[in-house]
Amino acid sequence: MHLRTMQLRTMQPRIKLISFYAIMVLFPFVLLVMLELGLRIVGFGQSYPLFIENPLFPGYLQANPQVIQRYFARPEMAPNVHPDTSFFEKQKSTDTFRIFVQGGSTAAGFPYGRWASLQGMLEQRFKRLYPNKKIEVINTSMAAVNSYTLLDFVDEIQAQSPDLVVIYAGHNEYLGIMGVGSGYASMGSRDITLLYIKAKNLRLYQALEQIYYAFAPSPKTDDSPQKRSLMELIAKETDIAFNSELYQKGVEQFSENLASILSQYQKANIPVMIGNLVSNESDQVPFSSVGKVDWDAYEKSLSTLSAKTNIATLTQLIDKQQNTQIEAQVKTQIEAQLYFKLALNYYELGQFQEAKTAFIQARDLDRLRFRAPAVFNDIIAHHAQQYGARFVDAEKYFIDDSVNGIIGKQHMLEHLHPTSRGYFILGEAYVDSIVNSDLINSELKTYTRDSAWQDIPLTEVDRLVSEYNISKLTSAYPFTDTPRIVPQPKPGSIVAKTLQKRMSGMDWQTFHNRLIVEYKRDNNLAEAAKIAANVSDAIINDPKVAVKAAKLYLESEDLDMALYYYRRANALKPSNAEYLKGIAQVYFFMNKLDLSREFINKIKQLN
């Protein structure tokens, strides 16, 4: 007993010493935790969740229109980009198939907007293919974001119980937000960027940012009549040579982030479909050659007589530059413009495969990297296989639909944003993949490609708006070295006059209601019905809007869509006799008399 007492007395100083050091080590961490909690209690700082409750419709969520601000210390530093406003049920019903879309501006449908996006194109097809299935398509895509943002969104998307995630992304790895050559939120190394993404929600980190920017100079404002475009603001590194250190950083960033994204979804047993990338091959000159080559003059000078001589000369120049690199081991760069000229001459001679190869080489050598290089498609295909995602060969769909297998202005508005036909083809690639996967457990109806193309959800107004937006985009950097101001479209048709009112500030729903009135006045019921359907697809919980679309489809004798929207209204208000009567009427016109009687009996039971 005496020995045990002595041992305890001997150990006590050691215990005190260990406790002292433990407290010394842990104290800073405890203090930091207390400071973090204190800042949160007093309401300091901001959090920008990906999804927020819709302020007008309780029980529904929507993508946060301010989510881009989570990557910037001050709101004015963030570009004016956001996901399209579409909302979905907070509590997912058991019969719902929920799809989330991830990507950049193409996945978001620029410049047409929601109805050209993957969301809009998928919704259009699914209404016809699976009319009896409730399918939600939620778009989280927005311009200028890259794989860092997609990776940052994964946890929040997983929390919303997705049945499928659709991804189309990769063009913004160099000059997108947090890209290796970007002027927006670029952190340099991938490890530092990932650490920043993790730390950005801590109030302590936000406090340190506020202190730093309180003493930092204010950001410069642009007082010129025409503000600089997003492309001009975002491009910090305008000279990223092929296979340079910065080029390889972009490749590694995309590969590692994509691996993390697909790995997380695979571990959560969430199916993913990811498509390879397309861009303008034949009708977009290398950006790095703008102002150096008069391309209009060069193309006018081409002829079958001169093409062979030009090809020989250009090939010699390219070989000489390649040999110089090998022999002298200098960091010279084969100019993208040489390959683009080579491609134009091959095309002039009808040697289309050689032309295509040269066009792709010109794109990959373009030092101003607003388009993804070919290696990105190899990464997408490899990672899809490695992590159990379904690979969507969107590029093949474009090639098969293109003249001579070369992607150009038929499918691309400028460097990479599709035309209406291009968006239709991109949507078709994903729709076919989803249908063939048998993920959606519902009866599949017949809906031909020609019918789908005639039924594309884009309207005349969407086309007019897109023409104006593309004119603005291509009138500035990097498409030209002499920027010009683009005037607003002049009023011509009634639609164009209505469009001007929208551009002057008319709210979205009033604008579309005006359009419906104008199209009905012109007896264009099909276009009026399409616009009413678009409004209903945006405001999915309003039965009156759905009935408006149903009636217009019934007038235009599109019974399938009339039934679809009457059933949507009925699902929202099952006891409304008007909606039941509409369904009964459509079934009667479909010659489905038993079903028509069934809904008439439901009306009698209500009375």
Helix content: 40-55%
Total discrete domains: 4
Unreliable segments of 5+ consecutive residues:
221-226, 328-332
Which structural category fits the helices and strands?
A: mainly alpha
- How are the strands of the largest sheet arranged? 5-4-6-7-8
For the termini, the CA-CA separation is 93 Å
Mean pLDDT: 88
**Backbone CA Rg:** 29 Å
Continuous helix count: 24
Shape: globular
Query: What does the largest sheet look like?
Result: 5 strands, parallel
Q: How many beta-strand elements?
A: 8
Provide the CATH top-level class of the largest domain.
Alpha Beta
Describe the fold and architecture.
The chain has 607 residues and is mostly helical. It has four domains: 1-44; 51-284 and 371-439, SGNH hydrolase (Rossmann fold); 287-365, no CATH class; 524-606, Serine Threonine Protein Phosphatase 5, Tetratricopeptide repeat (Alpha Horseshoe), CATH 1.25.40.10. Helices cover 54% and strands 6% of the residues. The protein is built from 24 helices and eight strands. The strands form two sheets. A five-stranded parallel sheet has the order 5-4-6-7-8, with helices on both faces. A three-stranded antiparallel sheet has the order 1-2-3, with no helix packed on it. The longest helix has 40 residues, at 2-41. The termini are far apart. Mean pLDDT is 88; it is low at 221-226 and 328-332.
Short key terms for the protein model shown above:
607 residues, mainly alpha, Rossmann fold, 4 domains, 54% helix
